[in-house]
Amino acid sequence: MTADPLIRNFSIIAHIDHGKSTLADRLIEMTGALTRREMREQVLDSMEIERERGITIKAQAVRLWHEKDGRRYQLNLIDTPGHVDFGYEVSRSLYACEGVLLVVDAAQGVEAQTLANVYQAIEHDLEIIPVINKVDLPSADPDGVIDQIESHIGLDAHGAARISAKTGLGCEAVLDAVVTRIPPPPADRTSPLRALIFDSTFDSYRGVIVYVRVKEGEIRPGDRIRFMASGSDWLVDEVGHFGPKMTPDATLGAGEVGYIIAGVKDIRAVKIGDTVTHAKRPAAEPLPGFREAQPMVFAGFYPVNSDDYDDLKSAIEKLQLNDASFHVEAESSTALGFGFRCGFLGLLHMEIIRERLEREYDTEILVTAPSVPYRVVLTDGTELMIDNPSKLPDVSKIDHIEEPFIEAHVIAPPQYLGGLLTLLEGRHGVQKKMEYIATTRVLLTYELPMSQIITDFYDKLKSVSSGYASFDYQLIGYRPDPLVKLDILINGQPVDALSVIVLRADAERRGRQLAQRLRKIVPRQLFEVAIQAAIGSKIIARETVKAMRKDVLAKCYGGDITRKRKLLEKQKEGKKRMKSIGRVDIPQEAFMAVLSIGEDE
Length: 601
What we know:
Layout: E1 7-14, H1 20-30, H2 48-53, E2 60-68, E3 71-79, H3 87-95, E4 99-105, H4 112-123, E5 127-133, H5 142-153, E6 161-162, H6 171-181, E7 194-203, E8 207-216, E9 218-219, E10 224-227, E11 232-235, E12 238-242, E13 246-249, E14 252-253, E15 257-261, E16 275-278, E17 297-303, H7 309-322, E18 327-333, E19 337-344, H8 347-360, E20 365-367, E21 374-378, E22 383-386, E23 398-412, H9 417-426, E24 430-438, E25 441-449, H10 457-464, E26 470-481, E27 483-490, E28 493-494, E29 500-503, H11 504-521, E30 529-535, E31 538-545, H12 561-581, H13 588-593
Parallel strand pairs: 1-3, 1-4, 4-5, 5-6
Antiparallel strand pairs: 2-3, 7-8, 7-16, 8-15, 9-14, 10-11, 10-16, 12-13, 12-15, 17-19, 17-20, 18-19, 21-22, 21-23, 23-25, 23-26, 24-25, 27-28, 27-29, 27-30, 30-31
């Protein structure tokens, strides 16, 4: 198959905060894609939430032009996230590329997510170009970092560009390396159209905007296209590229990255990983798509006001279009009414989705405590996957429960080793390996239950290492554990949204902590409220929210004692009746209290 010698498709990958977005800024500035007046820091981080948090959440594409040896090259750059929760964004972006720039901080060296991203690039058989960033820092050690890359990743890094993305020092060498080392894409424009959808977004006026990498053939406005997974046909209104703003083109050809607008109003017609082809001259078979993202953290999203259910549903559908790793199905709760069971890649992913729903779609959401998926093996041999503790079958029908285990990689300076070992072993971790990457870096490999890292683990990790530890993990399968369901009863009624699955050995401690936390959060009523933690029918902890008192004797000055007794008895009867029919409104903090019980409490 022929290749287009003047196109290069590449991604920038790195650990979080090693300078991916800043390098993208310099490349955009140097190639003249934006003027100095139009430039701003992290120009490809278009969402407000990305700019506030200083992290990339969505991969962003931009077309650049670079001249070398009298030839003008088209460079399609995709800036990717660095946080472990957005690894699926990185994976999808790599499908659209032939090579990557691996950015490593000259002061911090190889980190956990550096390794994870490199392994993804190797899996996609991409050309990897090491780039040593932040060489202008006083603590920079580029030679030591090059040794780390060669010894732990196995890449030849002696010719690596040494740059400062902040000042622009050495960035010209990066553009030259992209042109000389990254292979041009296959570019067969005569075959039937096959374009891979690697992302999409929704515009209220123009419908679904589809981001594609054209593998074969070409596409023009006026063409009738077909999405091969849904089988639906649409007329193309506009095609174009990102410069970084959407810029219309006359055509998009094989080897190029761009967008298609075809007035698609039906969100379900577009699926990330699908193949776009021509309706009149369709391709024989679709391109291999992406592996489905497997959500590992689940939580319930409910509208604060039940009348807003349809608005929340519409907002979730639009956001799902822009985030293929966000899984949703409808569910209902006796405590909270109708809502959605949502699946995420991690806790930060869940936080970002919640914030985007509230900001971009103006919805008010109540979020239940997150949990991981469990594999339940029944006594008759049947296997069930349970992502909601309230759906756990009766204990008499369960043979055993299996939970997901991960292999965690933690890289940190050796002086924090004691605190890190205490933290990991306190989370039921088993050490598999400990090795020194350099005199200043140690790599810990642990196996531990996924449920132990979805609450406050990341905060604790940063706390015990003074912010220096980096963390990455991979799922390694399911293993049986002595697990039980811990129920919370308020006023004798189980609150399904507060149920959690815990290790039997931890159940009593967790139940007691949870009851104590809820006692401070559940608002006082005119009657006494009992908060109980139970395993099956056995109550293992109890706390009481005292009733608010009204002084019914305030107007009694002296007089017969029987009159006072009668008033007190009447009040007692009223409270008893109120308790039997009274409804205790449970605030959002109560659901998050399940989250915030740390190991050190």
